[in-house]
Amino acid sequence: MTNNKPIPRSRDRQTQTIAPKPYELISFPKEKPQLLPPIEQDRYHADRYHGTLHLTLTVQTALHVSTGVVAMGSDVGQKSIPLIKTMIQGSEKNLIIPGSSLKGVVRSVYEAITNSTLAVVSSKEKDRIPPERLPCKDKKRLCPASRVFGALDWQGLIYFTDARCQSAGFRPGFMPSLYRPRPDQNQKYFKQGKVAGRKFYYHTIKAVDKGQQQGIPVQEATKEFVFTTQLHYRNLTQPELGTLLIVLGQDKPKYPIALKVGGGKPIGMGTMTVDVTMIEQPANLRDRYLSYQSQPDQLTGNQLQQVMQRAIQEAHRQLVQSPQLQELAAVLKYPTDREPPEGMY
Questions:
Q1: How far is the CA of 176 from the CAs of 22, 207, 210, in angstroms?
Q2: Residue pLDDT, tens place only, 6-43
Q3: How far is residue 264's CA from residue 217's CA, in Å, rounded to a whole number?
Q4: CA-only gyration radius of the chain, Å
Q5: Which of 32, 35, 142, 327 is most exposed by smallest CB count within 10 Å?
């Protein structure tokens, strides 16, 4: 006898509209992080690396880094839009990504592929975090990421300048309303009652834009907008420098990682690819402070590639966690053929 009992409408609708999750959880390493004292910062150490990475960041999907300010459309040259969420713009009307935003994005990936703690945990989430992954609070006992990026009472060893767009203007985009995280409704988040890993969103071939009638107006940098910035570093070990380069997508073609920057990550926004165009490093640290004519070495072309590949090899040998890197590279690889989620996810 055939069962002709109808399927409830709500369940049918849910089956049709819920898209695959646009994220994955990257597992924590099985071993506890090794907490060590950081390098002293009273001087430049001769056996460490110091210099500046010159970076070019190319937008691949619509990018919005919010200021938290909503402006009248007419104030930013968009008379047809009553109100719009803004990005920072310079004096020449070029968009700017704060260096602190870039540092946070790079740190999150660096933490995931090294045996590091989390940088920040809210008080209500604390009980769900594995104890060994709680943020470092003793500046004499820091995890690999905290030794480079900083922790409580520890400044860290790297600094990003603000990234400036090389062209003026922007495009108004229309971001759909996003859903709040619902970890309690997804057991994938937890393992034995504790958070199972770090959450990263997939890159997609495009970002969802709902149009003026349905979306929230935002200032955007669109595909192929180019930003430039500098990453200054001092007293890094070679593996630490190499790990930074892996995070910036320089371990090609094996790990072609791109960054996810700004808002709208679940709907495909914020994909940026990175090129290292030059490394500046002091030719002689002593002369740097004793001569007005001291000039740093500027590494480009084959010389640049050789320096980067040596550092990347040491990072794989001494610092990077291979299982976590492979998991993360599957999520952050670019180019991709993945479509952004439409509807609920």
A1: 15, 10, 6
A2: 444 444 444 456 678 899 999 999 999 999 999 998 88
A3: 12
A4: 22
A5: 32
